[in-house]
Amino acid sequence: MPLEQRRTDFHCHILPGLDDGPREQKISVEMARLFAQVGYRKVYCTPHLIKGMYEASTKEVIFERERLQLELDREGIGIKLLVGREYFLDEFLLDFIKQPLLLEGTNCIMIEISSHTPVDLIKDTLFAISRGGYIPYIAHPERCRLLELPVNGTNRQGAWKTWFSRGRGDGNENEPGNELLDYLKRLGCRFQANLGSFNGQYGERVRTNARYLEKTGTYTHSGTDAHSPDTVKAIFGLP
User: Fold this and answer.
1) Which CATH number applies to 3-233: 3.40.630.30, 2.10.270.10, 3.40.50.410, 3.20.20.140?
2) Which of 32, 33, 184, 200 has an alpha carbon within 20 to 30 A of 118's alpha carbon?
3) pLDDT 10s digits, 5-32
4) In angstroms, how far apart are the furthest CA atoms of the chain?
5) Are the CB atoms for 72 and 29 separated by under 8 Å?
6) Sequence spans of domains, the chain
7) Whole-prediction pTM value?
8) Who contacts 187 (Cβ-Cβ below 8 Å, separation ≥6)?
9) Pairing mode of beta strands 48-49, 8-12
């Protein structure tokens, strides 16, 4: 990834009081200090939008970003905050994005796909978003079982190791694929890796999925998906 991307967190729950991220601004400030410590310069604030659970308005997101940015500037913390949302893909999504909050400075709408979402709903919804002139930006695809490397039999981990050891991902026409993932690529989707997925933060299965997506050149962006200072510390090995 370009150096500028490595200095930018494209997915973070840093804004206070909007979702399952920090409850108080002082915790958000602590997160920002840690980001600055490891060399980050920009952080995308991407709170959840899930009907019936987290439904903060665009106005509230922008207000909290501006309020936190003022505090970071006052504290001399060199982090620029950018806005976005993490929209949950369900039957309500298209209504929520009639006036979407895009990832600031882009034409991308960040989408979270559950492993239990019907495949037809995923395809139809993301096609509609793309047809509307936006770019679907898939958050942490390695955590979605619908986007895994398909493996027959019970020894999935062993099969994955065999796939990697044979050097797959080099264009071999016989390598296994994933029909939904291929569709999303053809649609022009972007894909964001959670950095914690590579150090086992979400378990070995997700780590293997992340390695697969990295090896096949699927990822276009990366992010921490951090919800707390402890999350940031765990990702970067900070005390």
Assistant:
1) 3.20.20.140
2) 200
3) 569 999 999 999 999 999 999 999 999 9
4) 57
5) yes
6) 3-233
7) 0.89
8) 126, 127, 130, 136
9) unpaired
